Amino acid sequence: MNRTILKRLLKEAGKYRFMMILSFVLAFVSAAFQLYLPVLFGQAIDHIIGAGNVAFDALMPLLSKAAVCTVISAVATLLMTLVNNSVAYGTVASIRNKAIATVMNLPLKYLDEQKTGDLTARIIADGDAICDGLVLGISQLFTGVVTIVLTLVFMLKTSGMVTLAVIVLTPVSFLVARFISTHTYTMFRKQSKARGRQMGYVEEMVSGMNVVQAFGYEKRSQETFHQMNEQLRQCSTKATFYSSLTNPCTRCVNSIVYACVALLGALFILQGNLTVGGLTILLNYANQYMKPFNDITSVITELQNAFACAGRLFDLLDQKKEDDPVLCSHQKPSIDSITGEITMEHVCFSYDASRPFIEDFNLHVKPGMHVAFVGPTGCGKTTIINLLMRFYEISSGRISVDGTDITSINRTSLRSCFGMVLQDTWLSSGSIRDNLLIAKPDASDEELKEACRKTQCLDWIEHSEDGFDTIIQEDRLSAGQKQMLCITRVMLAQPSILILDEATSSIDTRTEVLVQQAFDTLMEGRTSLVVAHRLSTIVNADLICVMKDGKIIESGRHEQLLSRNGFYADLFNSQFASFAQ
Questions:
Q1: Phi and psi for 529 in degrees, rounded to 5?
Q2: 358-365 vs 342-349, strand pairing mode
Q3: Measured by CB atoms within 10 angstroms of the end CB, which terminus of the chain is less buried, N or C?
Q4: Do 370 and 541 touch, CB atoms closer than 8 A?
């Protein structure tokens, strides 16, 4: 798993190939000059013969060279760090851009099954963990490889037997690190998932705090969070424990290597095959040789955490995006304008394959018709709208707009023909102007004012602190004001087909009448589909479709449906019975 993730990370960093080559060159320079220092110090020690017998003429040039090598190695290390940071942060930024682009193109079915907080954790928190791992990993990888190779070369020049002993003991360190890192990855994977669940829960509780407090759910919420927190604590503790074992274990192996070098070196000195300065060089190189292994194992926590988080982020990137089942090798055609004719033929759909929901649904809407969908909650009214907008794909049947199957039309182009106002409002962070211009980026100030005037919200906008440039703060806007801004946004877009899903549910009765008049003006000559519970708002509809259990059980105009004394009549009378008394 780690190998696959590493390959993908390196592939993502491919566009920084030149910078990675530069980093390797700088690592080589840094390691070469740093490894040359023990040679200089060893020679310096051999020039210190005894008290009052020091060859200063030979000693001073060696110390000067050592100072120069130290400066060059430090500068190269600094530049390498800057380059590695650029590669790591650039790579993670690229992955995050792909992640948010993926989220924007994922089917609503997938997004409905995920917690917002968990998706946020993958893109933000997991991205940070990947970045930390890359910064350390790239630095240790390049520096470590160069250090190991150059150290062996320098050691071979000093003593072949000692070098052989060091090489023979090296695999022990590898085996220890591999055993521990395998267990560490599993723990960090669990930790990352637990953190995502916890962030999702926190996001839910904070966003719905008014409901939590209203129902006295605070204590139970804290208990649930405590359980999640305990799971995260256990995973984090185990992951940190395993990763913490790596460094002391490998250092134990390194100490054994160091002791073997000292013992062999001492024997060679007694035999006259090695000087004291030579032994000093070998001991330094023994440390230098094992240092890359120590460095890598010391950041094993970050590396395994990065791999675990990268795995979750790549899982998101690998999710199947919205695709077009036909014309997949070419860009689907766009539609510039439509008359508004809608046909649904034998449409079937289910959220769960084992439980059919919409079965053999048929509907024909002529251009300019005003069609209303009514019925009890959960009967499929909003689902029909979602299928028409291709937020969900039908299981079978055919939906066409102006005679063209919607699956053969570019999604963006198709949706641009619709103007949609939902019961649940959505406003982005930014100013009122920014939110309105989502519908029409090139709209003038006069167009903005005219749209706001029609929806009865111009007055309170102009009386706001900065008018249209007022920054929206969720807690300072009423539900009705948010809904009015969403309605204004659609007014500004002037769509070919208008979809209203309980669009005036959050607006007071007086304002609703005025907004309804604006809608009536907007709907003139346009096909409009209205999902309504307030039956008073759809009495003038050209066609009322009464739905139950995913099927149309009655259809007709208001007067016709009342005269039948059927399901619609019962709904209507139940709403207005109190007014009739």
A1: -120, 125
A2: antiparallel
A3: C
A4: yes
8 Å CB contact between 130 and 99:
no
Q: What is the pLDDT of residues 67-95, one digit of tens each?
A: 898 899 889 888 988 888 888 888 888 88
Residue 203, H or E segment = helix 160-207
pLDDT of 325: 43
Structure-block tokens of residue 528: 């409009």
- Letter for the amino acid at 561? L
pLDDT, tens digit, 9 for 90 and up, residues 377-409: 888 888 898 888 888 888 899 999 988 888 888
Contact between 516 and 531 under an 8 Å Cβ cutoff? The reply is no
Residue 37 CB neighbour total at 10 angstroms: 18
Angle of CA points 52, 53, 59, to nearest 5°: 115
Domain positions in the chain: 2-194+239-317, 338-417+497-503+525-576, 425-494
Q: Please indicate whether the domains covering 338-417+497-503+525-576 and 425-494 agree at the CATH topology level.
A: yes
What is the pLDDT at residue 371?
Answer: 92
Cβ neighbours around 498 below 10 Å, total: 24
CA dist., res. 235 & res. 226, Å (int):
14
Task: Please give the CATH topology (third level) of the domain spanning 338-417+497-503+525-576.
Answer: Rossmann fold (3.40.50)
Q: CA-based diameter of the chain, in Å?
A: 123
pLDDT in tens, 260-318: 777 777 777 777 777 777 777 777 777 777 677 666 666 666 677 787 788 888 888 88
Is CATH 3.40.50.300 what the domain over 425-494 is classified as, yes or no?
yes
Q: CA–CA separation, 100 vs 93, rounded Å?
A: 11
Report helix, strand or coil for 378: coil
Three-state secondary structure call for residue 463: coil
Whole-angstrom distance, CA of residue 438 vs CA of residue 422 = 16
Contact (Cβ atoms closer than 8 angstroms) between residue 518 and residue 450: no
Distance CA 215, CA 515 (A): 34
DSSP 93-146: HHHHHHHHHHHHTS-HHHHHHS-HHHHHIIIIIHHHHHHHHHHHHHHHHHHHHH
CATH assignment of 2-194+239-317, among 3.20.20.70, 1.20.1560.10, 1.10.760.10, 3.30.450.20: 1.20.1560.10
Q: Any idea which residue has 């209507």 for tokens?
A: 572
- The reported pTM is 0.62
